[in-house]
Amino acid sequence: MFLDRLMNQTNAPLLERVLDFTSKRARLLATDIANVDTPDYKQQDLSTEKFEQMLSRRVEERDSSPPGSVGFDDIDQEISHPSGLLNHDGNNRSMEHLMSDEAKNAILHNLIVELLRQQFQQLQSALKEKVS
């Protein structure tokens, strides 16, 4: 109970949600890249804008609520099918955009992993009663 409340007061649950989002998005982008030459395949993606809006609303809700009462576990993303110009084979993908999105997603994923690592390292130091 104590550790749950301690963890919910930090940004770890928020960072875990973002990590989950970037993992799911990486899988979708990889599928889109693998199917770049598949006729009539429609691109799938997760909306970063909608996800960011949901997270910011939840952070505002958490900040105005008692500690540990608001979590991030129920935030989920819906797969969307972005529209765009259709190619001659019925596809709506651009390899350049897919690779750019993949690179941005990977950078965000790596940043979140590093932030989580630092946060857990700080908690570990606090539990060991060491000052860094």
Tell me the helix content. Answer: 55-70%
Per DSSP, the total helix count is 4
Average of pLDDT: 80
Q: Characterize the largest beta sheet: strand count, sense, and whether it forms a barrel.
A: 2 strands, antiparallel
Give the structural class.
mainly alpha
Tally of separate domains: 1
Could you list the spans in which at least 5 consecutive residues all have pLDDT below 50?
none
Strand order of the largest sheet: 1-2
Q: Can you tag this structure with a few keywords?
A:
132 residues, mainly alpha, two-stranded antiparallel sheet
Structure, described:
With 132 residues, this protein is mainly alpha-helical. It has one domain (2-127). Helices cover 61% and strands 3% of the residues. It has helices spanning 2-9, 12-34, 48-63, 95-127, and strands at 45-46, 79-80. It has a two-stranded antiparallel ribbon with strand order 1-2. Helix 2 (12-34) runs antiparallel to helix 4. 12% of the residues are buried.
Write the layout of secondary structure elements.
Elements: H1 2-9, H2 12-34, E1 45-46, H3 48-63, E2 79-80, H4 95-127
Antiparallel strand pairs: 1-2
Helix pairs in contact: 2-4
Q: How would you concisely characterize the structure shown here?
A:
With 132 residues, the protein is mainly α. It contains four helices and two strands; from the N terminus they run ααβαβα. It has helices at 2-9, 12-34, 48-63, 95-127, and strands at residues 45-46, 79-80.
